[in-house]
What we know:
heterodimer, A: mainly alpha, two-stranded antiparallel ribbon, 12 helices, 2 strands, 75% helix, B: alpha/beta, Rossmann fold, 6-stranded mixed sheet, 4-stranded antiparallel sheet
Amino acid sequence: MDFFLTALLQGLCFSGIGLGIYISMKIFNIPDITTDGSYTLGGVVTAIMLTNHLPSYLVLPAVVVAGAIAGALTGLIHTKLKINALLAGILVMTALYSINLTIMGRSDLPLVNTPTLFNLVNITADPNQNSFWILIVFVVFITLLIGYLLKTDFGIAMRATGNSESMIKALGVNTDRMKIIGLALANALTAVSGYLITQFQGFADMNMGIGIVIVGLGSVIIGETLINWFSITSVWLSLAVVLLGAVVFQLVLALTLSIGVDANLLKLVTAVFVLLIVSLPKISFQKS
Amino acid sequence: MIDLKGIHKTFNRGKANEVIALTGIDLHVAKGEFVVIVGSNGSGKSTLLNMVAGSIFPSEGTVNLGDKDVTSLPDYERSRWIARVFQNPLSGTAPDLSILDNFRLASLRTHKKGLGIGIDKAYIQSVKEVISSLEMGLENKIHQPMGTLSGGQRQALTLLMTVMDKCEVLLLDEPTAALDPRSADVVMKTADKLIKDYQLTSILITHNLKDAFTYGNRILQMTEGKIIHDVTGEARKTIKQNDLFEWFA
């Protein structure tokens, strides 16, 4: 049972990536894979600040700013230099690897005897349950923030940018600027996942971000399938469903491990699972 | 209101696929004038319209709106004065956003899109009232995604959206080209009514010579990047529909 609780907690930690990919891929219609780099960046900034005993209330703002800068760079390369978004993301992700290594100075950094988000308050004696409640509060707070943003006039303009660029330009929106802000926001959220996971697992690692973009894609695609099934149009429900997707994704992976699949095959299982959820709706539609 | 002086536009200059789109256009459109532009494909009509909108910049020449030189302003900045309706009903609206969200953005065309929530009960009521003027029953569907409507309904709503905010110039690029005859008729009549009610300075591009004859108070014909006919004033009132057909003979 603990096994699944851990998976649930990881899923909650990954909700930042889920929301980030939802914003870049679904709202802005941009395939952004800066994710691998900005996630690790979030973890690295967290670990280096905590081990240097900098005030813990500064860590989250620093992580958000770092992730936002990474995303804004991808946005600038994509919009101002007119480079394909996928390539722009790969360039920034690659560059970030060196930057992360330089910041950390070594390939991994454990958090030993440092205060973290999860020992900040003790709601219950059980550490896992304690983490659960802290994560729930944290995730609800982020979701409310993003949900509110998407409902504002600025948020409507954001949603229209990825949906009908000619229309939104005619309505007075600088779409280049909007895309840069969007990618900054998406990668700030991704970095927040790095912040959570690093404190949850107790260390930051140079390779923690490899292939992590699939976690976000998986959450969004599970979410999107549900959105299509139930014809959800509400912004709040869409966000909730993406969060659900992040958790379901981790639970499925935990399930495959628990039935004895070799851990070395985990990435293969992940890829096949994402392939399945992408293709299943299409196959069933073709029959009807 | 709109002043184009010595406009030249060449795409891909010096390359094998060089296209000379506009050659020496001088055009003055007075305030409140409703100009209809006709011309065959590739005659430069759309380039001219995009030049006024700011989606294309001239190779030579200047564009003025009122007293202001806007030659180097991009489309999203010229939207302070200009509203547009596109040929493709999909281009003028955001299909995945609700009708209400689309109207909200249109209401903010000349304003900052800020971090407040602008859609409240009073706003919803005002949108419903505007939409009910179309008499299509769409005022009860404002929470539906725009994409669920037909092309004609979307084009009619796009027209209404242009006057949700302060508007001086209306650019219509073949707004009825993708529509069936009945929807096209509704859209043209709505456009004509709005232009009269709000005294908009307008430019309409159309391939429909009947529309060109019926609407507007000035007709231009373009060929190979030049204006070859310009009928206005008394001449416009006495022109016959057949005269237009002869231009294309």
